[in-house]
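User: I'm curious whether this sequence folds into something compact or stays loose and floppy. Could you predict its structure so I can see for myself?
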Amino acid sequence: MRAIEDQKAQRTQIRKLSALLVNQIAAGEVIERPASVLKELVENSIDAGATRISVELEQGGVELIRISDNGHGIAPEQMTLALTPHATSKISQAEDLDRIGTMGFRGEALASITSVSRVTIRSHATGEDEGRIIEAEGESIGEPRPVGCPVGTTIEVRNLFFNTPARRKFLRTNTTEQTRCVEWLRDLAMANPSIAFRCVGDGKVKLDLPLGQSPRERALAIVGTELSDQLLEVSVDRFDDARGILVWGLVGLPSIARSNSKGQHVFLNGRTIRDKTVQHAIREAYRGLIEPGRHPTAVLMIEMSPSAVDVNVHPAKLEVRFRDQSMVHRAIYHGVRDALQRADVTPTIAQRLPEFGSALTQSIDPVERAKAIEKQTDELVEFIRNAPEQSRDEPSVRNSIREVLERTPTVIPSQVGFAPPALEPGELPRVRRVDQVLQVHSSYLLAQDERGVLIIDQHALHERVMFNKLLARVTGNGALEQQALLMPIVLDVPSGVVDVFDELMPLLERIGIQAAPIGPQSVGVHSVPSFLLSRKVEPEPFMAELFERIDADGFVPDSEEALHEVLDMMACKAAIKAGDALSEDELAAIMRLREEQERSGSCPHGRPTTVRLTIAELEKLFDRR
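Assistant: Here's the prediction. I'll summarize afterward.
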């Protein structure tokens, strides 16, 4: 008990912390793992004007991180100063914080790294006769000594967290730590395409990028050259004042969206950032083109005046604060959206069924090839007739496919290949004659365009048409027309709905619904959208489902997302269904509407309305290439 009382007494005494402990606390904010060390030191190399940067890692960077550059080096008389806290050449007065144009600026990195590792620096400054070497460990900083070395700087960081074992035990496996180091280096390399980068981990080359690549070449070298034809270029130039913005980048077709956001790389003035404003703008640009939970592929390079952004809001400099967030959001959103609107985003069979595409490209003997083709045809049949309420009569489906293929223009022989006709910017391939559209099992439509055979989900396509129609009415007139009910509908609803009813009213009125609470868990509905009644949608089950959605987590009544979700639900209920037989006039009408709609290639949920069997895939199916 006495010992505990003594400890409590000691805690009440205020004392000045040692320089080492101060630096180790700072290191806790800046240096989380080997990747943090790599990031800080490579950023210093970039600030030093390096055109070549080389990285060596041992045991994931825990035992050794060696970074060499050919930058302007550190002057002999500044070697010791470079290792002391809050010493930097990049700012000199408070006003400089409002216009930071360098990667580093706080002067914390080297001092923080030194406090938790053993550091050796060799540097030869431009214009000096020889280089200097200095060694440091914890509080101990040695004297600089002459050394022979080329112009530039080499920094070795060994035994990371050797003197803070509690920090070291939280590191992951060497493989994981090395992966994170390489990921950071790739981001820094992508943001600086004119610099050559090389990384060797435990004797194996992990990255080797040449000098002087263009931004597109560098981005493709990292995200994968195989994605070249599935990436769209984004370009925005609104740099007309100190708060303007330039954006260049590549964004992926919806078909290559991923289950996580690791395919998104955003850079501001050469700095990797994680910004909610930019992420939201990208997500909104893809709204309705990808399914919820999927993340688009994107590489975006943003340039702004340093005075238009505050980068001094996060210890690792990952987060920033824009002076004009709305301007940044608009620029990113419209830039990405325009790129998507100019492109044909219809996915191919191979993209939707990767195993189907890989089987087409295999080189096998004629007998095995025939078996593979038969299997692929079966897969295609299954895909087309995926309507549970319909019959499973395979011959009828096969005959429908064959009829469409026979109507398709003769394929150019494989030795010549097929080149689709050139399109004007913004023009999408057109369906060739709507009177040749076939309805398969009253659920799918088969047609052709210049690039192959189109397989269309009639419900998904009509849902997109209905959604666009409703959204245009709401944004144009402010509210949908409503129809009063002869007798109000009384519904039992979750208590959460009644609690937020005041917030909910503007949304309900906007979509043509008049309703009010009539008890702690009851709501009376007095009118519903005329649109739903005209489409023979039963109002009671519709309203019951609507209130269930409103009670779901994440539903924000006064948000644009909530409006889109409700309109999407209305469109889904009102659209033609799988199993609805369509007349020739109705088929012609829906195909004309398809070509008039924005984003007709996907339903509001983000699922495709159309899949294309390309000419190339047809050629492979029939042994013509």
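Summary: The chain has a mean pLDDT of 82. The first strand starts at residue 52 and ends at 58.
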